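ok so for the tutorial part 2 we go from a plain amino acid sequence to predicted structure tokens. step 1 is just haveing the sequence, like this:
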Amino acid sequence: MGTTYSIKIYSKKSVNSLHLKQSVEFKLNHLNSIFSTYSDSTEISKINLSKSTKINLSDDLAFVLSKALYYSRLSDGLYDPTVFPLVDLWGFGPKRINSKPEENRVNKLLNNVSYKFISLDNKELLLSNSNIHIDLSSIAKGYAVDTISKLLVNKGFSNFMVEIGGEVRCNGKNNQNEWIIGIINPKDKNNLIKTNVSNLSIATSGNYNNYSIYGGVRYSHIINPKTGWPINNNIISASVIADNCIDADAIATLLMLLPYEEGI
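step 2 — the prediction. this is what the tokens look like for a chain of 264 residues:
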């Protein structure tokens, strides 16, 4: 998914770390073959390249897309898994651009951006607009964290930390102590905000690292799917603690888009 992963396990029994690493990477490669937008051969890329309006989905994709649509409905479309073409237009996708997009180009793409074009019938994807582009990058890493955590539990581990691209799940203890996760303080990156996270997940979204500057104005990589423009509010970073990382991941993104009071 274009990022890194890290796993820490506290265990008193002997662990075959090479075998465990192979099991983890087998699962991660499988998830990557579903959700990655970096390859045309993945399940989600094939959907985006096809013009079909009825497509059968894998269990993993159906589950994650149903979660994304839940948060889309909950936020009245502020969270939207079809926003990728606008993200790309603003220079935060594969395309490299050197100038601010023209307003008419933004408005044209808005015609093909809405979660309302998508519905699910069990594991069958139904599209009322075949020109949409589904991107689950804002939620798939969280799902991967949950999946790897379940893998470790099934292998008999109860004390561990799983981190994928900054999204984290902690189980049990770290050598009898609570797991402590550091959140970057955007105003002082040398001063981490330390948070105890045990048997919970945590995800952070922010606009202080990923942005573009056009005409001396800084534009966030987080795009409002209703306007087609980068968010312009006073929220720098949002961190969410939840039972499951898939939920923390989606809500952290959503909180960057909502006005502060409504987000709280």
